[in-house]
Amino acid sequence: MRSTASVLHLDLDAFFAAVEQRDKPSLRGKPVIVGGVGGRGVVATASYEARVFGVRSAMSTREARARCPHAAFLTGRFHAYRETSGKVMAVLRAASPLVEPLSLDEAFVDLAQAGLPDLEVATVAAYGEELRAQVAEVTGGLTGSVGIGSSKFIAKVASELDKPDGLTVVAPGTERDLLRPMKVGVIPGVGPATNERLRRAGIHTIADLEAVTEDEMVRLLGNAHGHGLFRLARAQDDRPVVADRETKSVSSEGTYDTDLTDRKLMEGLLARQATHVGERLRKHGLSGRTVTIKVRLHDFTTLSRSSTLPSPTDSGPAIGRVARSLLADLDTSGGVRLLGVGVSGLADWIQEDLFGETEPEEPEVELPALPSTRRSYSPGMDVVHDEMGPGWVWGSGKGVVTVRFETARTPPGPVRSYSVDDPALAPAPVPTEG
């Protein structure tokens, strides 16, 4: 923990939903829910107008519809989120050379490297407000909540205290007083299972946690987790802000509307996903040693199995063989909703075969047709009409697509319906990354 409040955490407010409201004038000030729109969908982000009705991230779309049936339910437009995030990260990197992105919508910034005249509370607070104003300017009005403290833990806790569109600075020396009344769930790593274990031990707040000895904590939670929680309960966190965090894994997965029961089909899907993972590894000059499969069963039980290779690989066929062997150990007779393949233990080199042999390519697996997991026109996606111009899909079904014609720079626009095969209507081109 530092002696100054010099770690800043920025968290963009309801980010995906806020981008949609920015780009769709008719949705401003109204409930917006971004995520899977099907029966098995999950909420990725809910606008604050939807949160009033109890909608939250990770809730099933089915429950979200029951709680807030009048909301706009949209699929994600990740190109728009990436573009907006890039502008925000550019602002932060101009402020300090040490910026640690955690996701598209949050990052840590080391203010000790920002060239400020001093790190007094008033100085860092003013600078935090300046950064928030810059973020709003470059994003077209999106808001972010900022926390500033003497460590990453304290800064992240502080950014939650005045949401949305707020700023909180925790003065050095006041950290433990701030934490004591809080629930233990605010501590990173305290998920539902750990929370329940602590509850059974009569530990509900950080003040309760602070009263437990380190030995007792280790007996309760294990060595690594116990020591870590003991320190964080006392605001002890010396983790540095690390710029350009390395990619830890590369993965590919798919969710299916109809449960999969054909083992050959599952093996083929894993082989195809492994090919995609291998292509991404090679594109970025990476390889990996640990292959993991993720399988979500018909009852929503999620299983994972891993195997570590003797040397790193970027070969799709090699990854696919390991993935299929891992699947063989699982009982999937009840049906599978999701399959995924990932590679971790990444390196920027590949062990050359000592005998000069190359990995044999496997033939492309021919898969039976799967039920479509998305419509031709999904709610929220950008479209363009030859006469009406740009717009977005309000909804589609039974051969009809309904479009609202508006953009971020126009007033709320008119609504029109078309046949899905109308030649005048087409998906808008998605900007390529580069």
TrEMBL record:
InterPro entries: DNA/RNA_pol_sf, DNA_pol_Y-fam_lit_finger_sf, DNA_pol_Y-fam_little_finger, DNA_polymerase-Y, DNApol_IV, IMS_HHH_1, Rev_trsase/Diguanyl_cyclase, UmuC. The record marks F16 as: Substrate discrimination. It holds the Pfam family IMS_C. Residues 409-434 are annotated as: Disordered. Mg(2+) binds at D11, D105. One of its GO terms (molecular function) is DNA-directed DNA polymerase activity. GO terms for biological process: DNA repair; DNA-templated DNA replication; error-prone translesion synthesis; SOS response. Its cofactor is Mg(2+). SUPFAM superfamilies: DNA/RNA polymerases, Lesion bypass DNA polymerase (Y-family), little finger domain. It is found in: Cytoplasm. It catalyses: DNA(n) + a 2'-deoxyribonucleoside 5'-triphosphate = DNA(n+1) + diphosphate. Residues 7-191 form the UmuC domain. GO terms for cellular component: cytosol. Binds 2 magnesium ions per subunit. Poorly processive, error-prone DNA polymerase involved in untargeted mutagenesis. Copies undamaged DNA at stalled replication forks, which arise in vivo from mismatched or misaligned primer ends. These misaligned primers can be extended by PolIV. Exhibits no 3'-5' exonuclease (proofreading) activity. May be involved in translesional synthesis, in conjunction with the beta clamp from PolIII. Belongs to the DNA polymerase type-Y family. This is DNA polymerase IV. It comes from Nocardioides currus.
